[in-house]
Amino acid sequence: MFNNQFLLPEIILVNTQLPENFGAVARAMLNFNFTNLRIVEPKFNLKNEKILPVAAGADKIIKKTKLFGRYEDSIRDLNLVIATTNRIRSIKKPTITFEQIVKKIKLKSSNKKIGIIFGPENAGLDNDSIALSDNVLRIDSNPNFSSLNLSHAVIIVCYQIMKNLLKKQKSKINKSIFNIDDIAKKNELINFYSILNDELDKSGFFLVKEKKRITMHKIKNIFGRAFLNSREIKTLIGIIKSVGNPNK
Predict the structure, then answer these.
(1) Terminal-residue alpha carbon distance, the chain
(2) How far is CA 207 from CA 196, 200, 212, in A?
(3) Are 13 and 43 in contact (CB under 8 A)?
(4) pLDDT tens per residue, range 163-174
(5) Contact between residue 139 and residue 157 where contact means Cβ atoms under 8 Å apart
(6) What's the pLDDT score for residue 100?
(7) What predicted TM-score, i.e. pTM, was given to this entire model?
(8) Is-contact 135 103, C-beta < 8 A?
(9) CATH superfamily of the 10-175 domain
(10) Which of 85-94, 146-155, 225-234 shows the highest mean pLDDT?
């Protein structure tokens, strides 16, 4: 499950030609929890009847889409602009990978925004748009047939970013689980639970004796997730004994 604490990139469509592709892009985004869509000078009215059927339930993305008349205005509040293209352009920009994009994604509280730009279906982004970008993102594909449908390109980008974010989260969890050098022995943890159980008994914490076992399971789960070391367990035992014997 993805922890939605991150500020995912804004998807920006430039000069999109077909209303069906607009709807399909919204659906692709919502598949991977991307919710912020901007569109610049589309070749159709945003109320076109062909949009919502293709969006297939992603209406909320369509309704909150921001419309811009100029490309420059659509990126003014962004900190990092990434242009998608598989064509060789005269303007050279450093290429960025999905892994590098994920490293630049910040927590929502940071308010640092990334925009990923997609050009029109017939030609892709022009040099003027690419000139205002910081990086270029390329999707590995058949070099002899690299042109992708707009919504397909968007869904690949959203999927790859989400996959790498999940990998990053999983890696952090695994590091905390398998870094066992500083984790206390289970004997220390069992001793702590025994002392805690005795003190809770004395204080009358277990109001319903029949539920005592289930309650202790929940308490063990809480402390078990912390991967306590020996020093922390000794500190907790000291706190519990002090609270249980305030006069000592």
Answers:
(1) 47
(2) 16, 10, 8
(3) no
(4) 988 887 665 545
(5) yes
(6) 93
(7) 0.69
(8) no
(9) SPOUT methyltransferase, trefoil knot domain (3.40.1280.10)
(10) 146-155
Burial of 26 (0-12, 13-18, 19+ CB in 10 A): buried
Q: At 116, which helix (H) or strand (E)? A: strand 114-118
Residue type, 197: N
CA dist., res. 134 & res. 1, Å (int): 31
CB 84 within 8 A of CB 157: yes
Distance (Å, rounded) from C-alpha 23 to C-alpha 1? 26
**Beta-carbon-side half-sphere exposure of residue 156 (alpha carbons within 13 Å):** 14
Question: How far is residue 9's CA from residue 111's CA, in Å, rounded to a whole number?
Answer: 11
DSSP string across 62-97: HHTPEEESSHHHHTTT-SEEEEE--S--SS---B--
**Residue ranges per domain, the chain?**
10-175, 186-244
Q: Torsion angle of alpha carbons 22, 28, 33, 35, nearest 10°?
A: 0
As a whole number of angstroms, the distance between CA 172 and CA 165 comes to 11
**Cβ(136)–Cβ(85) under 8 Å?**
yes
Structure confidence at residue 178 (pLDDT):
44
